[in-house]
Amino acid sequence: MGIPPNYREQFPDAIRTLVGTRNGVLIAQQTAANLHVAPGDTVGIERAGMAPVDVVVDGVVDLPQADSLFQKVGAPPGAQPVAPPDNVVLLDQTRWHQVVDPILALRPDLVKMQIHAALVHTLHPAPASAYTEVSAAAHNLEARSTGGALVGDNLAAALDAARGDAAYARVLFLFLGLPAAVLAGVLTATVVTAGADRRRRDQALLRARGATRRQLMWMAAAESTVVGIAGSAAGVTAAALVGWAEFGSPSLGADVRTAVGWATASARGRDGDRRRVGAGPGLA
Predict the structure, then answer these.
(1) DSSP state at residue 250
(2) Which of 5, 93, 151, 186 has the most CB atoms within 10 Å of its CB?
(3) Prediction pTM value
(4) What does the alpha-carbon distance between residue 117 and residue 153 come to, in Å, rounded to a whole number?
(5) pLDDT tens-place string over residues 90-135
(6) Cβ(231)–Cβ(274) under 8 Å?
(7) C-beta atoms surrounding 275 within 10 Å
């Protein structure tokens, strides 16, 4: 496989040096184990219908993304190779042309050209939306090339798995989170009902000491507002900290609209509970 001079700078995670130099003739770790060679040894590259070419190994590398690197682009699902090739030699572009150009003249079907491109990952935070966006870009490229190119979309494959996990998480939320939310509402209503008698007595005592109905209403509204805002802020902050600790992000949703929606819904629910506390029968 031939790579351009700046390939490792553009894709730093594709090739990892284990022994030897970063440039020159590099062999995969599995290849070094199969052939029992190390930097400084000579290996032969066989060519169909031609004499082999001997090269001196400059380094041994690991290929963390070998499955993606050697995938069969355009193959249907299930038709990909079971494992990447065992014997892999990486050559710089100049030496690769020296070795492969004679083969290209006689057997062009044995030589494949690939263009590796990295997308800017400013995608939609939701995996399903990001998958749709990336897949549409890949199909657009194939259409614009009028059949001259096939796209191996590794990013879409990862997002496809992520959107499946996201859908499963939604199902878990419906069956686990929703009953918990209902139970929390029932407990809140129980606490509110339990304090109703005490609040009626307090408000009756204030009325006996000269407080007007308007003053009691203002006091109840102020209390519920202060407690609701403080409780909502504490709850949202605690949720953000838990998300930061567990998932590395304080976001409450896949995007800004979802995060604001969840925070607003929780705040309104808490504020509604506090208003019910303040609006006791003793105001009548």
Answers:
(1) -
(2) 151
(3) 0.56
(4) 10
(5) 999 889 999 999 988 888 888 888 888 877 777 777 788 888 888 8
(6) yes
(7) 17
